[in-house]
Every structure is written in structure tokens, then in C-alpha cells.
Design goal:
This protein has 292 residues and is α+β, with helices and mostly antiparallel strands. It has 2 domains: 169 residues, Beta Barrel (Cyclophilin); 66 residues. 34% of the residues lie in helices and 24% in strands. The chain is built from 6 helices and 13 strands. β11 and β12 form a beta hairpin.
Length: 292
């Protein structure tokens, strides 16, 4: 999970060029910038034991041959994320999609349009939503993202142990690196014209978006209370991810299903990561309801 933030001028230029080629071709990344969602003072999110009460929204993720995972959805903390998930579920988008990525003691991921972790151009796109009381504890339901852009893919934390607590300096260094990329991108924008200028502008917006996500990673560290830290140690999870991904739900039933999926045999995917299930794991359906 950890990345190397060594900075060189050649590396900066290469990174800017990479974003210019593969960056946000579907409009400005400013429209999908990460945002903090402030909830009511009484909102505790998943930092306390989560139960379903009258009026709560829930989702049931039915996995063929494994069973059902029931999650509480937190509209107050992730309004865009929850609305998007509900709409996709009601439209039947997730039916017969797969859980394409399983990593024991980390997470299981599904909902890819093509079943292999790749997306399509017409997928929804929205930014990371951060709420200080939504954390990556064991059973957290979250959006997978690419460069801070959410779409259709979700993941569930399956780590019963506590992952690494990253020092604030890690993200401070990441932010400084982004500042370097942003400065180079600005210079290239000013020196360019036509399509090339557009590409560099997209690269600039991409690095600005990355920087904003890292700033939320840093904020999540500063917002984390001693009680949250102790809960990680007690319940398990992956605090490294806090602030960088949208946590929009929490498993309340079906932890045994999460655990069974986490034990499946995997092989290397196209990127060489040992995470692709040998036997296909099919999402039969995702249904959404409200507690009466």
C-alpha cells in the first residue's frame, strides 16, 4: 500500500505527461473534487457499534453460493455515494456483476462494469466524500476510486486485525510532491496551445484533485480520536485508507459471508496482484430497503 514519494524533475515531468495522456478526459476533475460532509453533532457513523433502527436505509448484497451481506447505509455522511449506490441497485446494475478482487486481511471488491476492475466511459463519476466519523473498520462498505473519482465499484474491509497507522508526515510529503507536479503542470499549460494545452490543463486538475485527497488523508489523521484508534485495535480495519475513500456503509449482518469470501483461492490478475478469485464470485443482486 505504501508509495514512494521521492521527487526528481524527470519524475515530475513524466508524471505530468502520464496524466496528460490518461487523465480526466470526461470533463474537468474540478466537478468531482473531494468534499467534506458535515453531519449533525449526534452523528457517530460507524465509530460505535452499528445497528439498524426504524427509518434506517440498508442494502442486502446477495452473493451466489455464499449468502447475504446486510449493510446499513449512511446518507448523512455520504449523500452522493448512497444515492448513487441506491440508484444502481434499483436499476439492477449489480445483478450478475462479480467480486473480482479478494485480498485476505484487507478487502474484497466488486461492481466493476467489465468484471475485471475496469470501467466504462458512461459510468457515474463523483468525488470522495469525507466524514470524520466514517472509518475503515472491519465491515466498512466503501467506494473504490481511481485518482479520487468514485464510480460503481465498492469494497468491504475484511481485516479483523488493525492495519498500519500512517504518520502525518507521510501525507505531508505526498502533498509537497503534488505541489511540485502542479507547478510543472501550470508551466506546461502556460507554454502550450490547442489540444496540448487542454491535455496539460487536465493533468493540472488531476494533480490538484490528488492533492485534495491527500489533504483529506491528513485531516483524517488529525481528526482521529483516541477512541477511534482503540476501536481499530479492537475491531480491526485499515486506518491507512481514512480520508482517501468514501465510507458509505457498514456491515451489520453477514460477517460470516465476508469471511468465507475472504478465504477463497486467488491467482494473479493482469497487474500481477494475487487477488483474482480462481472461481468466479457472482453478485446475484443488491436490494435496498428501509427499516419499518
Amino acid at each position: 500500500m505504501k508509495r514512494n514519494f521521492k521527487k526528481t524533475s524527470c519524475g515530475l515531468l513524466a508524471a505530468v505527461m502520464l496524466l496528460a495522456v490518461s487523465g480526466c478526459s470526461e470533463g474537468s476533475s474540478n466537478s468531482i473534487a473531494p468534499a467534506e460532509v458535515k453531519a449533525s453533532d449526534s452523528f457517530k457513523g460507524n465509530t460505535e457499534d452499528v445497528t439498524l433502527e426504524k427509518g434506517d436505509t440498508y442494502a442486502i448484497i446477495k452473493i451466489k453460493d455464499f449468502g447475504e451481506i446486510k449493510c446499513k447505509l449512511f446518507e448523512e455522511a455520504a449523500p452522493k455515494g448512497v444515492s448513487n449506490f441506491i440508484e444502481l441497485a434499483k436499476d439492477g446494475y449489480y445483478t450478475n456483476k462479480t467480486v473480482h478482487r479478494v485480498m485476505k486481511n484487507f478487502m474484497l471488491q466488486g461492481g466493476s462494469a467489465n468484471g475485471d476492475g475496469t470501467s466504462t466511459a458512461d459510468e457515474p463519476k463523483f468525488g470522495v466524500e469525507y466524514n470524520k466519523n466514517m472509518r475503515h473498520y472491519y465491515g466498512a462498505l466503501c467506494y473504490a476510486n481511481a485518482g479520487g473519482v468514485n464510480g460503481t465499484q465498492f469494497f468491504i474491509i475484511n481485516n479483523k486485525n488493525c492495519g498500519d497507522f500512517v504518520e502525518a508526515s507521510y501525507y505531508e510529503n505526498a502533498i509537497k510532491q503534488c505541489d511540485g507536479y502542479i507547478e510543472q503542470a501550470k508551466n506546461l499549460v502556460n507554454k502550450s496551445t490547442g489540444n496540448e494545452k487542454t491535455q496539460y490543463q487536465q493533468a493540472l486538475e488531476g494533480w490538484q484533485n490528488k492533492k485534495a485527497v491527500y489533504e483529506f488523508n491528513l485531516k483524517a489523521i488529525n481528526d482521529r480520536t483516541d477512541e477511534m484508534t482503540e476501536r481499530y485495535k479492537e475491531k480491526g480495519g485499515y486506518p491507512f485508507l481514512d480520508g482517501g475513500y468514501t465510507v458509505f456503509g457498514q456491515v451489520v449482518e453477514g460477517f460470516d459471508v465476508v469471511d468465507k469470501i475472504s478465504e477463497v483461492k486467488v491467482e494473479k490478475n493482469s497487474n500481477g496482484e494475487e487477488s483474482s478469485p480462481v472461481d468466479k464470485i457472482v453478485i446475484e443482486s443488491v436490494t435496498v430497503g428501509t427499516v419499518e
